[in-house]
Amino acid sequence: MSTRIRARNIGIPFKGTPGAFNSITDVHGVEVGHRTIIEDSKSSSTKQNCIRTGLTVVLPRGKNIVGNLEHQNLFGAWYSLNGNGEMTGTTWLEESGFLGPLIAITNTHSVGIVRDTAIQWFQQQAKGSGLFDCNYSSLSLPVVAETWDGVLNDINGFHVQREHVFDAINSATSGDVDEGNVGGGTGMVTHKFKGGIGTSSRICGDYTVGVLVQSNYGFRHQLTIAGIPIGEEMLDELLPVHAKNIEKLDETGSIIVVVATDAPLLPHQLKRLARRVPIGMGLVGARGGNGSGDIFVAFSTANHQAMGKQTGVVQLEMLPNEQMTPLFESVAQATEEAILNAMISAKTMEGIYGNKVYAIPHERIREILKKHNRLTDN
């Protein structure tokens, strides 16, 4: 893995204590994998077939699942700030409180194939063991979400294929997570700078909260870093260069957020966590505009013994509501930092029709923060 530059590396201050990797993978057992697809058509001088896309998977119990798949489910919940987007599997998630052991994020036009392949992967994990029950809905209705990458990607080319999904799953690891122009975030734009995948975590007493975002939203003037309206000072700097489809940048785009914790929370409590994601988004300038698909999913890796079909009374652990406030703050803090990690890690990208979106300039951010006495060197 190449040397990474993240938000803290350039002096952006944050509250809270991150985990060892400052990543969703600080929640024990969670793995993340990407499949990035970047190709240029050699036969097209106009870049009409320019591919800038991919997918990202979050595997709450890792890719090497042992035993009955039904017992690898988790308690989960979802929430939408503004629903101009898609996240499959949420009807059953809302009804049952159970989440399958895979979450995927891709572009808007690839949700179907990623969803179908996720089910195929579940089947392959149980092949020959008889441990896959298609009637167990969390496995037949996986959670797959999307944001629109058509400014840089030939989104109508349907370039994400079945093998790419397996590649992402097989590449999943714990530890450091690649950010920026990777996986599902390859072609994404944030506050009219290059966006993409970002992650962060917080230690919260005995528990850990981790967040992963696919960031693709926001107007330039809204961008806020460390409480400073940086976007207002950069209104005319490094604006996207375009030929076609740039009108899509006039809307506010979308953001998908995955929240993980090892705290023993029940589904209604996990929904409470998901509802705190917009607080962190607002710290960076998100406003949940009409055209934005701001959709979030949260899960807990605890209560493993309660998963799968059960008989009789099941014993559960539950953190009292009175002890949840620090978790709420951790979600907001990690969401803010994950979005900025996505932006700081991203690189300038040229895509379809010659459209070009610039990376946010690190030295310019440092200059503005220093002027406002908000710069810190970690």
TrEMBL record:
Q: Which InterPro entries match?
A: ArgJ-like_dom_sf, Peptidase_S58_DmpA
GO molecular function annotations of the record: aminopeptidase activity
Its family? Belongs to the peptidase S58 family.
PANTHER family membership: BLR5678 PROTEIN, D-AMINOPEPTIDASE
Report the protein name in the record: Aminopeptidase
**The organism of origin for this protein:** Adineta steineri
